[in-house]
Structures are given as C-alpha cells and as structure tokens.
Specification:
Elements: H1 19-37, H2 43-74, H3 80-102, H4 109-138, E1 140-141, E2 147-148, H5 151-156
Antiparallel strand pairs: 1-2
Helix pairs in contact: 1-2, 1-4, 2-3, 3-4
C-alpha cells in the first residue's frame, strides 16, 4: 500500500456556509483524494483507472461550476464574469491535460492529480472566497446555522 501525503483533509476554512456549495466542494476533495489513492506507480493500472473515472470527474466539475454560476447570476454577484472565465480556463486546462495523458505524453496520474488538487484548493481559497463573503451578506441563516439562498434572498440581493 502506498501512503499518500498529498491527500486533502476538509477544513472549515474551505466552507462557504452554503450547504449545497460546501457539499459539492467536499465531493471535489473526495474525488481528488480518490485519484491520489489510485496512484500506484503501475502505469497500466493508473491508465486504466484514469480512463474509467475521468469523464465522470469532468462532468461533476462542470455540474459544480454550473451551480456556482447560477447562484452568482441569481444573486447578482458582480464578480460573476471573472469567476466564469476562471472556470472556463480550468476546463480548457483539464481537457489539454487529458489529451496529453491519453497521448502518452510525460504526464502521470500523480502529476495530473496534483494539478487538480492545487487548482481546487487555490480556487476555493482565492476565487470562491470572494463570493462566500457576498453570499453571507445576501443569504438567510437557518435555525441550524447554515446559510440558505432562497428566492426572497435573491429578490433582496443588491444590484
């Protein structure tokens, strides 16, 4: 068994306070960790694993980006255009990395997964934090302390 020090441990510092977003971010962290757990050093095993999971991984990332973007549009978040561009740039980079990996270029599962980890963590810490603060201003706090963005919150969001 390979012990991997690259695994991500979820922390409240990654939390937006909006359950839907936090649950999706946790899923992304689990996805990256799952990929790290399949870094074995065996090229054939890693390649077979990559081929099995990559389409689902990309689909999930796109779903998450769509969720974030819909909430940004609905709440009139003024950083939406910049954030969407960051998402598009990331998707293009992932597609290029996938093409390189599938073409047998010098990209390993470990390298690809580190790229995902670095991007996910920096994106949450830098880009997503901007809308976290905005959402905290426009969202309703439920009895359990979680934030909820509902139609009333959206109507009351500042322009």
């Amino acid at each position: 068994m390979v012990v991997n020090n690259d695994l991500i441990t979820w922390s409240d510092k990654f939390s937006s306070g909006v359950k839907l977003i936090d649950d999706q971010h946790k899923e992304l962290v689990e996805l990256v960790n799952e990929m790290f757990n399949h870094v074995t050093g065996n090229d054939l095993q890693e390649h077979n694993y990559f081929n099995r999971v990559i389409n689902d991984a990309v689909s999930y990332v796109k779903k998450h980006f769509t969720t974030e973007e819909k909430l940004m549009i609905a709440t009139k978040f003024d950083g939406y255009a910049e954030h969407k561009k960051e998402h598009e740039t990331f998707i293009l980079a992932v597609v290029e990395n996938i093409k390189d990996y599938e073409a047998g270029k010098r990209l390993t599962l470990s390298t690809f997964t580190r790229f995902l980890k670095d991007w996910v963590l920096s994106h949450i810490a830098l880009m997503d934090k901007k809308y976290f603060e905005y959402f905290k201003k426009v969202a309703t706090r439920k009895a359990d302390g979680k934030l909820s963005i509902n139609s009333e919150d959206i109507r009351n969001a500042s322009v």
